[in-house]
Amino acid sequence: MPNRIILLSGRPAAYHVAAALEQxxxxxxxxxxxxxxxxxxxxxxxxxxxxxxxxCIDVVVPPAILERLPGPAYNIHPGPPAYPGAFPGALALYDxxxxxxxxxxxxxxxxxxxxxxxxxxxxxxxxxxxAWLKAxxxxxxxxxxxxxxxxxxxxxxPLPHLAGERWGERRASKRYVRxxxxxxxxxxxxxxxxxRRAFADEPWLQKPA
Length: 209
What we know:
Distance between the termini: 47 Å
Order of helices and strands: EHEHEHEHEEHHH
Radius of gyration: 18 Å
Helix content: 25-40%
CATH class: Alpha Beta
Number of domains: 1
Number of helices: 7
Structural class: alpha/beta
CATH architecture: 3-Layer(aba) Sandwich
CATH topology: Rossmann fold
Largest sheet: 6 strands, mixed
């Protein structure tokens, strides 16, 4: 079973994640990282009993670190498999999605591309804002963590994959989302309303690149 966890997450969320893992594995050596630099430093401690877990953070793990790990690294993040890539919440609102959620998956070199281990979905009301969606999906991500904490903290073998669950075909880049977010005077009223609902809480996206 893992003796060391590299926990890639912002604080104070990381401390809650650590507490959930330690309930199932006393004596875990948990190394904290919230930036690429801190992750590189923590990676020096990788050995045959190290597991990497990312929680609600957008730091991309370099291939060289993934290759050094003895088993899969795992990522838990807001956003369902239907919305891989950048700004999943804003895109879900733009699409008028009625369901959203969080995902636990194995990390691969390509972002949001590894086998899916677990999902948790919820209904999206018609008047949902981006702030509401972010808060609700972060809660869903923590519930996923609690559900899988025992396996993440104690199992040597990879966690079972979720049969039949696949990533969506549209893999959004920041450039793509920026192209949708720009609100101009010549937009049809319906399209302008869609963009305001989805992107008003991300004003920097509405500036030309």
